[in-house]
Write a structure and sequence with these properties.
Elements (H helix, E strand, L loop, with lengths): L10 H15 L11 E3 L8 E3 H16 L15 E4 L2 E4 L20
Helix pairs in contact: 1-2
């Protein structure tokens, strides 16, 4: 393509960019500390991702925008805070104290 020409991408190219970004967002997001985690900005609703993944997705998002791809409308709730838990970026569930859902220590059976 020559510079200055229309830079609109084909719908299938747009779908591939978005699909590749979803593949990255949906993989395990490894971290060492809470500062390694952040919210994704694209594609779809915010998910907890690592800064490394954010940096990998950024060029795909820019190509998607400059390619004038049409973003599907998605109804997203405001995401809970993302943080690093046991080496993975996760969302802190609102209203659930740390350790909620864990087996009470008096009910743990070691066999």
């Amino acid at each position: 393509m020559l510079a200055g020409c229309e830079s609109k991408l084909e719908p299938k190219e747009c779908d591939k960019l978005r699909g590749d970004a979803f593949d990255m967002v949906n993989k395990a997001q490894h971290c060492n500390t809470d500062t390694d985690c952040r919210q994704s900005e694209w594609p779809g609703c915010a998910k907890p991702i690592s800064n490394a993944t954010f940096d990998q997705i950024k060029p795909l998002a820019e190509s998607y925008k400059t390619g004038k791809c049409e973003e599907p409308k998605v109804d997203c709730k405001s995401p809970p805070q993302s943080y690093c838990k046991q080496g993975l970026c996760v969302h802190r569930e609102l209203g659930a104290p740390e350790g909620a859902g864990n087996t009470p220590t008096d009910q743990i059976q070691i066999q």
